[in-house]
Amino acid sequence: MAAGRYRGAAGNGAGSVRFRVEGSTVRGFSATVTMLCPGVTAGQLSTQAGVAAIARVRLAPDGSFVAATTAGRETSIRVHGRLAGSRLTGGRVELSVGTCTGSGTFRARRG
Q: Residue 41 maps to which CATH number?
């Protein structure tokens, strides 16, 4: 696990992910997530971009991490992944804001 700033792509490359590693902690995690939202009429859906942000996540000795948090009454966030060297693998983020939900994979590199 290499300390420093990490940046990468979320989803199909349309979003971004950023965080930094300090010792055994991930700090300032932020990822863009595309969410589906139900429309006013039945069967109608719209998309909305959201940002999943978590201030601090502890790293396990093998470099893996998992975190779940809420932000306000209607927002929940879950993220997990594994740092190996200067790369993040197996990253997944889930975001729920009110009736809108979305999830996606992400990858990142130090630098």
A: 2.40.128
The 10s digit of each residue's pLDDT in 33-78 is 999 999 888 888 999 999 999 999 999 999 999 999 998 899 999 9
The pTM of this model reads 0.89
Q: Which domain holds residue 57?
A: 4-110
Using CA atoms, how far residue 14 sits from 3, 27, 31, 84, in Å, is 26, 23, 11, 24
User: In the chain, how many domains are there?
Assistant: 1
Q: How many CA atoms lie within 13 A of 110 on its CB side?
A: 13
